[in-house]
C-alpha cells in the first residue's frame, strides 16, 4: 500500500462484501437504469473494509494523480530498490530551484522510468474512468445533479454544505457522500439537517475514487431529480485527478488561505467549474486580496465562475443557490 496517497483500505458505512456489482469485468453491462433494477445485499450494522488493489508491476505499488492528459500525470510510488537507469533528473530553474515535473511523465520516481510511469498511469486511470462512467449512467438515469466539493482542510466546506442543505432541502431532494480519512463527524453534522448522508473513511487515502462512490451511492436512499453532494477529502492535489462521475467540481477556497492558492495548485482550479470564496466575513481581519485571487484563478481557468460567500452570515448564499438551480435546470433540459 502506498503510504503517501493511501492506495489501500477505505471504510464505507454499512457496506458489506455481498454486493452484486462486480466491476472487475464489465462496468457498462447495466446501461441506463435506476436503483430499482439492481439487486444489492447490504449489512447496515457495521462498516467493513473495502480493499482497493491497484495493479502493480513487480513490487512497485503505484498511485497516479491525473491532470488533464496522459502526459500530465503525477504518481506516488513505494518501489523496491532499483538501479538509477532511466531515472529522470530534475530541471534546475534559473533561481536554483528544482523542478521534477518536466519529464515525459511530468513526475519523478526513483528507479522508475518515465515510460513506465505513463504506462502505470494509463492502467489506473483507465480503470477508474470506466467505473466513473458507470456512475455517471446511474446519475443521469436518476436525474441527479452531482457536485464534487473540493478544498484544502479548514476551508469551511462542511459548514457551508450544512447551511446550503438547510436552505434548499425543502425545495430539492438532497443527499451527501462524505469523504474523510477518519471519523464520521462530518456525516453526523449532515444528518443533523435531516438529509441522508453516508461516510467514507479513506484511512491513509487522500481522495475519493469512482469505486468508493459507486459503493456508497448504492447505500443511499435518493429520490429522482435531486442534488447529490460529494464532500471530498480535504486536499488540493489528489481529488483533482479522479473522475467520480460527477456533473462538475466546485472548489472552495477560504480567505484565510491566501490568494495565490490557484497558482500553487493549478490542476484543482483548472478542473473546477466554480470557485466559492468562503469566509468573506473575515476579510477585514486577514491579509487577503480577493481580486488577486479571482485573477489568479482566471489565469489557470479562464472559464471558472466565482461566487463570494460566508457560511456564517449567509452573504452570497443566494447566488450559490441560484447557481445550483441553474445547473438543475440545464440537467433537466438535457435529459
TrEMBL record:
Organism per entry: Vibrio marisflavi CECT 7928
Entry-linked PANTHER family: HYDROGENASE MATURATION FACTOR HYPB (PTHR30134:SF2), HYDROGENASE PROTEIN ASSEMBLY PROTEIN, NICKEL CHAPERONE (PTHR30134)
Domain of life: Bacteria
Keywords: GTP-binding, Hydrolase, Metal-binding, Nickel, Nucleotide-binding, Zinc
Domain CobW/HypB/UreG nucleotide-binding: 146-307
Family: Belongs to the SIMIBI class G3E GTPase family. HypB/HupM subfamily.
The name this protein goes by in its record: Hydrogenase maturation factor HypB
Chain positions covered by the region annotation Disordered: 12-44, 67-97
UniProt feature, compositional bias: Basic and acidic residues: 12-25, 34-44, 88-97
Gene name of the encoded protein: ureG
Amino acid at each position: 500500500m502506498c503510504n503517501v496517497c493511501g492506495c489501500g483500505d477505505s471504510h464505507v458505512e454499512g457496506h458489506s462484501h455481498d454486493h452484486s456489482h462486480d466491476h472487475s469485468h464489465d462496468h457498462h453491462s447495466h446501461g441506463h437504469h435506476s436503483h430499482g433494477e439492481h439487486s444489492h445485499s447490504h449489512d447496515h450494522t457495521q462498516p467493513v473494509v473495502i480493499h482497493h488493489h491497484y495493479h502493480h508491476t513487480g513490487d512497485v505499488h503505484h498511485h497516479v494523480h491525473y491532470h488533464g492528459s496522459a502526459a500530465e500525470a503525477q504518481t506516488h510510488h513505494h518501489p523496491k530498490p532499483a538501479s538509477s537507469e532511466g531515472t529522470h533528473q530534475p530541471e534546475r530553474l534559473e533561481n536554483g530551484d528544482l523542478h521534477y515535473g518536466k519529464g515525459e511523465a511530468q513526475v519523478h520516481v526513483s528507479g522508475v522510468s518515465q515510460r513506465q510511469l505513463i504506462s502505470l498511469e494509463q492502467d489506473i486511470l483507465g480503470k477508474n474512468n470506466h467505473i466513473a462512467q458507470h456512475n455517471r449512467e446511474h446519475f443521469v438515469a436518476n436525474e441527479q445533479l452531482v457536485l464534487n466539493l473540493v478544498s484544502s482542510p479548514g476551508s469551511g466546506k462542511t459548514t457551508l454544505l450544512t447551511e446550503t442543505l438547510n436552505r434548499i432541502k425543502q425545495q430539492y431532494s438532497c443527499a451527501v457522500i462524505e469523504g474523510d480519512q477518519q471519523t464520521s463527524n462530518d456525516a453526523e453534522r449532515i444528518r443533523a439537517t435531516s438529509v441522508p448522508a453516508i461516510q467514507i473513511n479513506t484511512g491513509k487515502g487522500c481522495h475519493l475514487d469512482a469505486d468508493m462512490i459507486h459503493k456508497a451511492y448504492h447505500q443511499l436512499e435518493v429520490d429522482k431529480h435531486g442534488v447529490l453532494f460529494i464532500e471530498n477529502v480535504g486536499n488540493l492535489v489528489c481529488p483533482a485527478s479522479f473522475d467520480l462521475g460527477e456533473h462538475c467540481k466546485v472548489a472552495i477556497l477560504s480567505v484565510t488561505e491566501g490568494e495565490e492558492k490557484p497558482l500553487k495548485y493549478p490542476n484543482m482550479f483548472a478542473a473546477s467549474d466554480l470557485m466559492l470564496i468562503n469566509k468573506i466575513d473575515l476579510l477585514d481581519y486577514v491579509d487577503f486580496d480577493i481580486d488577486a485571487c479571482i485573477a489568479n484563478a482566471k489565469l489557470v481557468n479562464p472559464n471558472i465562475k466565482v461566487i463570494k460567500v460566508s457560511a456564517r452570515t449567509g452573504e452570497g448564499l443566494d447566488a450559490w443557490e441560484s447557481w445550483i438551480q441553474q445547473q438543475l435546470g440545464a440537467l433537466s433540459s438535457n435529459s
